[in-house]
Design a protein that fits this description.
Blueprint lengths: L1 H32 L1 E3 L5 E3 L19
Antiparallel strand pairs: 1-2
Length: 64
């Protein structure tokens, strides 16, 4: 009986750990999706705010 209880506890701990890792990966993915990256690897905040306003756009020929 002790072995069965130990195995069940270990399976529950493994399941909880897998769930926590899954949630952390989802949060990290959402955080990454909120940013656009330049070629140099620096993060640029999202260009279109969620409230519908539009930001200043640069002309195509203007350097960054």
């Amino acid at each position: 009986m002790d072995i069965l209880l130990t195995v069940l506890v270990l399976l529950v701990v493994i399941a909880v750990g897998a769930f926590l890792i899954h949630r952390l990966n989802a949060q990290h993915g959402e955080r990454i999706a909120a940013f656009h990256y330049r070629r140099g690897g620096t993060a640029v905040p999202d260009r279109e705010p969620s409230d519908g306003r539009t930001g200043r756009r640069r002309p195509p020929g203007e350097p960054m």
